[in-house]
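dumping this here before i forget
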Amino acid sequence: MDKFPSTIQFTGLNTPIRAEASVRDLVVEGEIPPEIQGAFFRAVPDPAHLPMFEDDIALNADGMIARFLFGDGHVDYDIRYVETARYLAEKKARKALFGKYRNPFTDDPSVEGVDRTVSNTTPIWHAGRLFMTKEDGRAYEVNPHTLETIGSWDYHGALKSQTMTAHARIDPETGEMFFFGYEADGLCSKEISYCIADKDGNLVSEQWFEAPYVSAMHDFVITEKYAIFPLFPTTADLDRIKAGGPHWAHQQDLESWVAVMPRYGKVEDIRWFKGRKGVSCFHLVNAFDDGDKIHMELCLSDTNAFPFMREAGGIHCDQSEIGGGLIRWTLDMSRNDDSIAEIPLGPPGDMPRLRDKDQGRPYESAWYLSMNPEGGPPLPGGPVGVAFNALLRIEPATGRLDMMPLGFGMGLNEPVHIPARDPDHEGWLMCVVDRQVDDNLFESELWIIDAGNVSQGAVAKVLLPIPMKAQVHGWWVPADQLAQARAGK
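structure:
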């Protein structure tokens, strides 16, 4: 292959940039709230080399860690590749050696046994350490000050699972981090690990249990009493993978499941609840206890949101036809059945954001991305092939919904939330906004938005002089925590 494929996975906002860069003192329009001091880290998939296969996907690209550093009204920007074992092997060879997405049977024989993860999904900050994660492997630790890669992270040998989720949950009161890994002991394994790291970053618990099938289990939630593991019917099959086929295929006729266990209990205490057939969810807003009931909010769709996963399962529909919405599932732990009650809360969307202090607790408001019905055709690119063009603020208890709509030719990346000093203020949201200026040419800005008044739009904009590639997820680290980094220790 002498050029990148002309597919949606490598054009639009997914156009490879492949450049490490540093820019100091970015230009700011408006005034940055003085309490915004710290770093916004972004996970950006960007292939360092031409792919081995024409039908490669954006999620298979090498991970880059990007950082906007805020201090005293100044903003600096840096982006570096995460130097995973995979990245370093291909850097040395000056070409791609790893084949199809999560399929080691399509790799060059020279990299057999080399860690395949690209660490391109979520930056996670816990106990003074910055990790770059992707759910097909263990995390890589990164120095938050230099963005240099320190190495694969296994809790000093304590972690037995071969995988770690890109969606850990951190309890705001205890400081503990809860996480899991699926395919925990190898390709197409039904084993799931459930782990707890204490506030100091020590792994204090790791338990394993078996799932009904191998599911693309991207996210989970905690409450004050429970850990909750949703499984949706996008499944893996070892024979299909060995034949060079896709890792994931969505099965529309297969049930979804939810596993619930006491947060500090034993996996033997898990209860299974049965959900609707064929539905799919990659991200959950939150969950909380209500007496004997558990409420959990999901960005649910009637089928899988990723075209390549749908099509592998024989499902062919337009992206606008996947349906669904923001949905509340309620599980009644006092009942002796496996049913799930369901009510709608808001329109379809994804990439939800919750205040850190509300994790696992009842909450008043949250935010997620959706589509502006008057915004025109969406920008091409991003993980599912199209970009969102509206930011929603929702109050689940009242049903109130506020929108920040974007105009024609604009798109939003997932926001992060930054708390305000004033306890009566909802804080700030920060996200990259892209605008199409010509055919396959885009400009980007970093917007700062009043979280309680999203319809007002940006209160400040940071102008970006270099191209931005669509991110997956991000994380905000306050300056006081950043100063206590324990990188490499």
